[in-house]
Amino acid sequence: MNILLAGGAGFLGSHFCDFLLEKGHSVYCIDNFITGKKENIKHLLNNKKFKFKKTDITKKFSIKEKFDCVINFAAIASPVFYDKYKIETLLVGSYGTYNLLEFARKNKAKFLMASTSEVYGDPAFNPQKETYWGNVNPIGKRSMYDESKRFSEALIMNYHRVYGLDTKIVRIFNTYGPRMNMNDGRVVPQFINQALNNKPITVFGKGTQTRSLCYVSDLITGIYKLLMSKEHTPVNIGNPHELTVKDIAKTIIKLTNSKSKIIYKPLPEDDPKKRRPDISKAKKILKWEPKVDLNQGLLKTIDYFKRSKI
User: Fold this and answer.
1) Which end of the chain is flanked by fewer CB atoms within 10 Å, N or C?
2) pTM above the 0.85 mark?
3) Can you spell out the DSSP letters for 131-187?
4) Is 28 a catalytic residue?
């Protein structure tokens, strides 16, 4: 397939570019570098099946090539950055998704959207099934990200209903691995950065809130299986193994041989207390489940951050 991938210079997008090229597809990557980095795709620039164009999908854009598939990984996905770029976060999940859907419709192309577990908000049920409608504060401090993704999902499902567009929605749970931004505020990069510098590890609340960490290669494999499937409704992709934030901090301290101590700060507004995917749908429909051991994945990520500091 000839694939247009928006947000392809980001953490997840760049890994998906790699994966698609390895599968023999051609990839046309677009990104505006708000949070994506050219370094993430630098190794692909000489690949004849890879193209890149700096593009802002919140504005109308024109690419003359014909595409079989349009993938939207464009998002401002970390708390530090979506707090800094509040309006941009909302626009990329509204105008951005709309422009890509229109582009896909004109190309008669398959469309895949990278959505998020954040559509469930601070969930009242654990684990979270795709049938759960969520517990989201629509005007809270995280609303710019949560609601942009919820709007994207609604728009996509109605493009499927109205135009018959072949659409896919993946709800991505906590994912980690190389190419994460060291300063994006998410649990794994923040803790690794602090641990490598022997600085205090900042845990919010009592550290009893949970996250479920999926290594990036597992996630990408699951998303590709969804892309190639006939499923149109949202599918959770993530690791159902649930850990407390405090336990994640302790594990990273141990793996980095750090002298860091854990310190506690007040829990931010609307920070989810629980995060664990029910992946029974992915297991049944996609025959997928994660395989990478947590310690193995964390060691690879720690090694990336060590090399990034050199």
Assistant:
1) C
2) yes
3) T---B--TTSTTHHHHHHHHHHHHHHHHHHHHH---EEEEEE--EE-TT--TTS--H
4) no
